[in-house]
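Our preliminary data section would be incomplete without showing what the modeling component actually yields. Below, a chain of 298 amino acids is followed by its predicted structure, encoded as tokens that our downstream tools consume directly.
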Amino acid sequence: MEQLGIRTFCPSIEKLLMGFFLPFASAALGTPVPPAATTVFNLGPLPVTSSMLALWGVALLILVVIMAGTRRMSLVPTGAQNLIEAMVEAVYNMVASLLEPRVARWAFPLIATYFIFILLSNFVDLLPGVGSLGYGHAKEGGLPFAVEHVDRPLLRPPTADANVTISMAVIYFVLSTIWALVYNGPMGLVKHIFGVKGKMGGWLLLPMTIIFFCVGLVEVISILIRPISLSMRLYGNIYGGESVLTLMLKILPFGIAAVPFYFLELIVCAVQAIVFTMLCVAFTATLCSHSEEESGQH
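Predicted structure:
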């Protein structure tokens, strides 16, 4: 009979679950990580998955911190306000240093939201109970609520679900296309992609036009596959890290083999949030920028 509980992988660890090793044991307590998030329950026709529950938790945490930090604003920030302003300022400086001021104003709200959400979502992978708490078959002779296997985990890192990363990438793709159309104009965008760069004239104009048209076709293909590149890179790294922690924690007692990987995953989680947002900024810069010749004309 299926019950809600936590899976343990050796008798001795059961006595230590509430002790020092709990943070390092959480990933190993689950079964091998499935590629897709499992359905925990249904709200009518809507299936609620383990990644959706974690996503709602991350969104609630962001709202609570922002409300606490902006409730009593002061000229000299302290506490939550200081944390929020420091993070927002760091992201804005990154965006403003790579994009023109007008484009930076468009892109900054989305880029900042993505960075904060992805960073917190990635760290969900390192929390105790993620992947190990859920529904499974009761374990005979174990602690109360101990299960042999967690068939339906309650929580899964949102960014370890391809549905979440693909959705973020598609939203960015749609908005970046709108920004490019507003910035360049429809015909200006076509010229930006397919037009001849530099001052060309005479007999070189025709062959260079053909060459730059072919380069433009390659650029169009590159633009179309950007959502796939963004989403799969983030999903693959977080899902891979979750799987590695699960395997390493089963090699030696108490999950000692996973301790270096646990701290490595801390770095990976932060780096992947930076990489995703930096790529969004870089992709936007390639579509919303003028060459020196175009800048002179404007």
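Residues 2-297 form one domain. The chain has a mean pLDDT of 78. Preliminary results of this kind motivate Aim 1 of the renewal.
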